Amino acid sequence: MKTVLQALRDEVHYPIPVGFIENKLIERQLDFDVEYSSEISNSNEWKGALADCLYSLLQAVTYSESDKSVGTLSDEDKKRLLVRINALYK
User: Given CB 3.0 to 4.6 Å as the disulfide criterion, which of 61, 75, 83, 88 pairs with 47?
Assistant: First the structure.
């Protein structure tokens, strides 16, 4: 059994704080301890919570040292992500 919380963490692919994900699930009135189902995955509440979490990636801080960058999304990555986010919000 996969919970709604675990499904959302898996969907985002990037590590964001669990507390942030829980906040978004609460704001969208989703119970994070229930079993994830196709009914939930098709709901506006789920799509909104997913879009909220993906949007947080656009706001993430970038750390750079020398020629290495951590947490950096290219401009193209950001554009593609924003297209997906906007589609979810619609």
Answer: 88
**Element of type H or E holding 23:** helix 18-27
| Cβ-based neighbours of 61, under 8 Å, separated by 6 or more | 71
Q: Which tens digits make up the pLDDT trace of 59-78?
A: 875 655 555 555 567 778 88
CA angle 29, 31, 32 (to 5 degrees): 125
Q: How far apart are CA 70 and CA 68, in angstroms?
A: 7
Phi, psi angle pair for 54, to nearest 5°:
-65, -35
pTM for the structure as a whole: 0.82
